[in-house]
Design a protein that fits this description.
Elements (H helix, E strand, L loop, with lengths): L8 E4 L5 H11 L5 E4 L1 H17 L3 E8 L3 H12 L5 E5 L2 H11 L5 E5 L7 H6 L6 H15 L3 E3 L5 H8 L4 E4 L18 H7 L3 E4 L1 H4 L4 H27 L1
Helix pairs in contact: 3-4, 4-6, 6-7, 8-10
């Protein structure tokens, strides 16, 4: 777990264009050091904006959920490496992950395996043709993520504690679907509060709407960071007590 919670909070720039993204970054100033760029912003010149953020000293999590033939995945990783982003997502299919790992070998790019989207529940999996439960499928993919040498995993914070027993303590465990208590869940189905996610073992929290749609985004971000800091400190105390 990183010492600074500022490096653990990733704000999702889930906005329609670069101008809107720039406005969010401007409002948050030095409070936030890490941003996520997903499909929506990527489709609106988001890759160029990612380079700008990196040049300005920010970290970028490029949430592309890559899934294609090996050569296409590898060439995509080559292009992504040129941007200087810190993290990129790949669907946790072993063949796809192996191609990505080979392409990123020797670099600092952290490849994250997508297990089961936090917008999906058991009924969604069944409709998609999966026989596994959400929990079983997540654990199976977590083991595969470790076996191929990925840098981390993306999963619901609800599964974080169980996943730590599979992936260990050193891999990144990035959790979307984070909602402060009292906020709307939106299209997320497997959610957890920021503090509970940190206690469960998440290394990074991805939060968009509760911050970027807040009346005062800076205050919202500071409140979440405070909750993360408090619960991180509590987790350390509990671990020390167990050691003794």
């Amino acid at each position: 777990m990183q010492s600074s919670m500022r490096d653990c909070l990733i704000v999702g720039l889930d906005v329609p264009n670069v101008s809107a993204a720039e406005a969010v970054v401007d409002k948050l100033g030095d409070i936030i050091t890490f941003y996520k760029i997903g499909y929506q912003l990527f489709s609106a010149s988001g890759l160029s904006f990612a380079k700008e953020l990196v040049s300005s000293g920010k970290k970028v999590f490029l949430d592309m959920k890559l899934l294609d033939i090996d050569n296409t995945v590898a060439r995509s990783i080559d292009s992504i490496l040129c941007t200087g982003v810190s993290m990129v997502t790949v669907h946790a299919y072993p063949k796809t992950m192996r191609a990505a790992v080979k392409a990123a070998q020797g670099t600092d790019l952290c490849l994250l395996g997508i297990t089961v989207l936090t917008s999906m529940d058991q009924n969604d999996l069944k409709e998609a043709g999966y026989c596994d439960t959400v929990e079983n499928l997540v654990r199976k993919r977590a083991r595969q993520i470790c076996e191929v040498g990925m840098g981390g995993i993306v999963a619901s914070a609800a599964e974080a504690s169980a996943l730590r027993s599979v992936i260990g303590t050193n891999m990144a465990l990035v959790t979307p679907g984070i909602r402060p208590r009292g906020s709307e869940h939106g299209d997320q189905k497997r959610v957890m509060s920021p503090g509970d996610a940190i206690k469960a073992g998440a290394s990074h929290l991805v939060i968009a709407r509760p911050i970027i749609h807040a009346r005062n985004p800076a205050d919202a971000a500071l409140g979440i960071l405070h909750e993360m800091e408090v619960n991180s400190a509590m987790s350390v105390v509990q671990e020390n007590m167990q050691d003794h």
